[in-house]
C-alpha cells in the first residue's frame, strides 16, 4: 500500500506538466488572436485623438478623448445616406442569394438530372475565380447595357458572385435530411414544390440563417464592385465613403478611424447577436453533409 502511494505521488506531478505540442498550438492561437484584436483596439483609441497627436505618435493613447471625430465623420461622409445605400443593396442582395441558394441547393441535393455534376463543378469553380480579374469586363458590360450608376447596379454582381458557397452549404444540409419525410408527403399528395417549401424549408431555417448572415457581411463590406460600377456620389456605399477622409495632400486619420468604427458597427452587432447561429448552421451543414 505504501509502495502504491509512493508511485502515485511520483506520477501525479506529471499529469500537470504541459504538453509541448499543446503549448506551441496555444501560443500560435494566442498570437493569432492578438493579431486580430490589437489592430481593432488601436483603431478604437486612435479615433479619439487629434490629428496632431496622431501625427506625433501613432501608438500613444489620447491625452483627451475627442468624440467630436465621430460627429465630424458623420457630417463629412453623409453617413446616413451611405448607410441607407448599403442597407438597401445588402438586404435585397441577401434575400436574392438566400432564395436562389435554397432552390438550387435543394434541387442539386434531391434530383438526378443530366448535367448535374457539371453544374456542381460550375458553382465550385465560381469559388476559385478571383473577382478582381473580372472587374474590367463587368464594367464594360454594365456600361454598354446602361446598368451602371443605378440604385440596383450592385445587386446584380453581389447575387451572381456570392451564390457558390451558399448553394454548397444548403445542398450539404438538405442531403442530411431523411428522404422518408418527402416520400410521406408525396404519398399524402403534396407536390414537389409543396414539399420543398412546406416540409423542408422550415427544417432548413438554421442553414439559411447562416447563409443570410454571412452574405450580409460580404455585401456590406464589398468595395471593388462599388468602386468600379458607381460614379454617382448619391449612390455610394459605406466602404466607398471612407475615401472622403483622404485629400490630395493629407489624410485625417483620426476621423478616418472614427468612420471605420461607425462602418463596422452594424456587422459587429449582427455578428455578436447571431454568432451562435452562424456556428451552429455551419457545423450542422458540415456534419450532415
Automatic annotation (TrEMBL):
Membrane topology: Multi-pass membrane protein
Every ABC transmembrane type-1 domain range: 83-274
Keyword flag Transferase: no
Transmembrane segments: 21-45, 89-109, 121-142, 154-175, 196-217, 253-274
Keywords of the record: Cell membrane, Membrane, Transmembrane, Transmembrane helix, Transport
Subcellular localization(s) per the UniProt record: Cell membrane
Keyword Membrane: yes
Recorded superkingdom: Bacteria
Alphabetized PANTHER family for the sequence: ABC TRANSPORTER PERMEASE PROTEIN MG189-RELATED, ABC TRANSPORTER PERMEASE PROTEIN MG189-RELATED-RELATED
Family from the record: Belongs to the binding-protein-dependent transport system permease family.
Protein name: Carbohydrate ABC transporter permease
Organism: Paenibacillus illinoisensis
